[in-house]
């Protein structure tokens, strides 16, 4: 698929939607705090959807818990990778070795 850019693409189509006026005003104020209009925000959503070829965020019934589990899993992977890289280093000195040099036993 060729690269599409929402910003530079010709604007010849239209898009309409119905929304509660209070909700519209509220999200417009949120986006205004970010320096964006509602149209800018929608275009950003569309561009990100194009970039990732899907929804630009995780959607599940329990997204918060899924994101937490994903973050923990990534953190544990990185910790293990770091631990493995150090243990394979010949200059590695264990915590126990350092403490024993100072007469500390666990």
Overall description:
This protein is mostly helical and 106 residues long. It folds into 2 domains: 17-57; 60-106. It has 4 helices and no strands. The protein is elongated, with a radius of gyration of 25 Å. The model has no long low-confidence stretch (mean pLDDT 84).
Oligomer: single chain
Order of helices and strands: HHHH
Largest sheet: none
Q: How much of the sequence is in beta strands? A: under 5%
Percent of residues in helices: 55-70%
What is the overall number of helices?
4
Count of β-strands: 0
Mean pLDDT: 84
Low-confidence stretches: none
Distance from N terminus to C terminus (CA atoms, Å) equals 60 Å
User: Globular, elongated, flat, extended or rod-shaped: what is the shape?
Assistant: elongated
Q: From the helix content, strand content and strand pairing, which structural class follows?
A: mainly alpha
The radius of gyration over CA amounts to 25 Å
| Tally of domains | 2
Task: Give the SSE layout.
Elements: H1 21-33, H2 38-52, H3 63-87, H4 95-101
Search tags:
106 residues, 0% strand, 2 domains, single chain, elongated, mainly alpha
What would a concise description of this structure say?
The chain is an all-alpha fold and 106 residues long.
């Amino acid at each position: 698929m060729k690269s599409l850019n929402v910003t530079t693409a010709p604007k010849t189509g239209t898009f309409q939607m119905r929304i509660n006026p209070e909700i519209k005003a509220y999200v417009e104020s949120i986006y205004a705090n970010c320096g964006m209009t509602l149209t800018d925000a929608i275009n950003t959503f569309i561009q990100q959807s194009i970039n990732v070829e899907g929804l630009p965020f995780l959607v599940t019934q329990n997204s918060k818990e899924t994101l937490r589990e994903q973050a923990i899993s990534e953190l544990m992977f990185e910790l293990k990778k770091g631990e493995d890289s150090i243990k394979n280093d010949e200059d590695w000195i264990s915590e126990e070795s350092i403490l024993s040099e100072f007469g500390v036993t666990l």
